[in-house]
Amino acid sequence: MSNILEYNVDVNDISIHIVEMGKGKPVLFLHGFPELWYSWRHQMAYLAQNGYRAIAIDLRGYGQSSVPDDIESYSMRNMVTDIVQIIDKLELKTVALIGHDWGANIAWACAQIHPKKFDVLVSLSVPFSPRPPLPLTKLIKKNSSSFNWLLYFQKQGVAEREMEEDYKKTLRRIFFGLSGDAPEGTQKEIVAGLPKNANLLDNIPEPTKLPNWLTEEDLDYFTNNFKKTGFTGALNRYRNVDYDWSDLEKESQNTIAQPTLFIGGELDTATQFNMHAIDSMEKYVPNLKNKIIIPHIGHYVQQEAPQWINKSIINFLNNYY
């Protein structure tokens, strides 16, 4: 990738790593777990070539951004404040906001808490869901008897010990196991079909080779960054879900008014397990312009199907931004 501008900005008492390409209307990208700004490499280059200013960040706790020690600093309100202050720091009035996985959840919250900052939204993998009747961990415990990633990640130090034993193996297995390249049924099995006392990585198959969308160089980039930060910062986002449920009670009632695009992968469990939310999304996102499900694609949609994602995003932006 050429013509990249990389720098850090101080916002909300931390430092955020920013990468940008191109000139034009600003488009801000928010990654998910366990990823980095680098997950958007294909989209950034494409949007820059098509007249947009593509801006991607490492979320707090990731990559070359700050990794605060306290769990509470990873609350959704803090994550949203990071984004809003980045926009102000870059002297932008508004942006188009694109998020994947946790980045999608942050994007939804941004639109609810600071709607005037965001002209349009694109959500990958994670549809908008209304506030549940119980805090999320209590809801999961009530309704599920199998292993659950979110509950496993609540255990401070436990998930870290397993995941940090071999960073490259961890990332390789997670990227492969949740992708469309994994053996049929793998995605559902590792998300919802494991016994309650399972370890995570033991139950994700080791790929015989990397999927075509992930090169050894790509994997090394992710690995080297997580070796520097560890996984605690990233996992601390999961550890705030019950706090967020209480803290954002008022804002979570707000309608998403912006023109919005949703894209999911046919084999993405974040999409498969949320089909009811996808089907009813117009109730809470009345300006939803399109819902796209990409065949044969798993969780890492923007990396697995970059051409499809790029064209879908550019068509949406050209029409509504």
From TrEMBL:
EC number(s) given by UniProt: 3.3.2.10
Broad enzyme group: hydrolase
Name of the featured protein: Putative alpha/beta fold family hydrolase
Superkingdom field: Bacteria
Keywords attached to this entry: Hydrolase
Coiled-coil ranges from the UniProt annotation: none
GO molecular function, one term: epoxide hydrolase activity
